[in-house]
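hey
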């Protein structure tokens, strides 16, 4: 078989394979995250002292912040994403809670692709991956969790991640102190739905 024909055949095969793979992934719905064990696992590691202490400390520090100040901080964050000066971003990425979240993500075996925690005003406390905004208070991940009470959970729609050819969805919940119904903040965990589905299939 001529080299050109062979090359075209390989390219066609790869294209069809990728298309088929993507089409199969379309079947994955973020509703599969509505799972008791999954929620239990997340609550277990999100109730550690480093999470609760960090949240309570930032809530105390930010209790008198006005909306104008919050928006100003958010603008600084977004500006620093495009700048060499990233003092505010680094202060969040390098704190102990961010280190803990990075540890949880790296030890999830590819299940978690990012984790972020917000305080009672929707401001970042920590994250395993740098967020696009400092203030999340205008987004569903905050408005449909912390703003609705201690038991609130919000599962966003699945989004296809082109770079990894996987489907992902954000799972958000209100964070509270142990054995307490008072909300302290909220957390969002981005989940690799393909990996989640794979693990679920092994349990059947």
């Amino acid at each position: 078989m001529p080299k050109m024909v062979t090359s075209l055949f390989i390219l066609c095969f790869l294209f069809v394979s990728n298309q088929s793979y993507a089409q199969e992934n379309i079947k994955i719905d973020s509703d599969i995250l509505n799972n008791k064990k999954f929620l239990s696992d997340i609550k277990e590691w999100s109730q550690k002292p480093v999470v609760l202490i960090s949240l309570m400390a930032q809530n105390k520090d930010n209790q008198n912040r006005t909306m104008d100040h919050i928006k100003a901080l958010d603008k600084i964050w977004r500006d620093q994403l495009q700048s060499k000066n990233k003092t505010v971003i680094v202060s969040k990425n390098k704190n102990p809670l961010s280190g803990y979240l990075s540890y949880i993500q790296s030890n999830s075996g590819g299940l978690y692709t990012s984790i972020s925690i917000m305080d009672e005003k929707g401001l970042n406390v920590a994250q395993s991956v740098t967020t696009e905004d400092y203030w999340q208070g205008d987004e569903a991940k905050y408005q449909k969790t912390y703003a609705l009470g201690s038991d609130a959970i919000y599962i966003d729609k699945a989004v296809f991640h082109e770079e990894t050819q996987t489907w992902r969805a954000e799972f958000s919940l209100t964070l509270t102190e142990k054995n307490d119904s008072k909300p302290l903040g909220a957390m969002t965990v981005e989940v690799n739905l393909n990996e989640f589905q794979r693990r679920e299939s092994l349990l059947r």
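Residues 30-202 form a domain with the Beta-Lactamase fold (CATH 3.30.450.20). The chain has one domain: 30-202.
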